[in-house]
Specification:
The protein is an alpha/beta fold and about 150 residues long. It is built from four helices and six strands, in the order αβαβαβββαβ.
Length: about 150
């Protein structure tokens, strides 16, 4: 096999549609354009996406994502992080200031405590929000929760 013997796959090549070559070709007369109207004339061009005067799809659809102005964004911290922090610094109470000093929270962020992990330390935890699982875990360990 060499380059001179290569051929396209069978069925991949089609004969050109010969338009406007007389009635015997089967494509004579109107040359597949139908009768009358702008589409049958030479020089006709319709703008891509034109929908006959109806508002086109690319103008009906919003261009950018939706941003809920009322959304409240929380920084999530799991109870296993609180446990590790309490063991490391020998704490009985954890609030926002302690987490900010530990580098786990920025001063402008709201704190939500989530219930992933295990907590055994008896802690008083102060945060903006708690998940149900986190409240159960903290109270099961003998601690308390305070919503700010």
């Amino acid at each position: 096999m060499d380059l001179s013997s290569l051929k396209p796959a069978s069925g991949s090549i089609h004969r050109e549609k010969r338009i406007g070559r007389g009635q015997g070709s089967g494509k004579g007369g109107t040359s597949t354009r139908g009768h009358k109207g702008a589409k049958s004339r030479s020089g006709y061009h319709m703008k891509i996406g034109f929908e006959g005067g109806q508002m086109p799809l690319q103008r009906r659809v919003p261009k950018f994502g939706f941003k809920n102005i009322n959304r409240v964004a929380f920084k999530a911290i799991n109870v296993n992080m609180l446990q590790a922090l309490a063991e490391r610094d020998n704490l009985e109470m954890i609030d926002r200031d302690i987490l900010i000093n530990a580098g786990l929270l920025n001063k402008n962020e709201l704190l939500k405590v989530l219930g992933d992990g295990v907590i055994t330390a008896k802690l008083e935890v102060k945060a903006n929000a708690f998940s149900k699982k986190a409240v159960e875990a903290i109270e099961a360990a003998g601690g308390s929760v305070v919503v700010l």
